[in-house]
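Methods — Computational structure assignment.
A single polypeptide chain was analysed. Its primary sequence is given first, followed by the predicted tertiary structure written as structure tokens.
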Amino acid sequence: MQFIKNFLAEEDGPTAVEYAVMVAAILMVCIVAIAAIGTQTNTMFEDATTEMQNHGM
């Protein structure tokens, strides 16, 4: 029990939690951005393939 009291009283515990929350938020933004770019890239290649097929290539 004393360990928990000391952990909460010190600055290290909350600081570590804050950093963990920031890292999680950054990761979520990165994942969303990568997913959006992947979808746009896939659409671009599908459009290019369709255009080539329509022009007999």
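Note: The radius of gyration is 24 Å.
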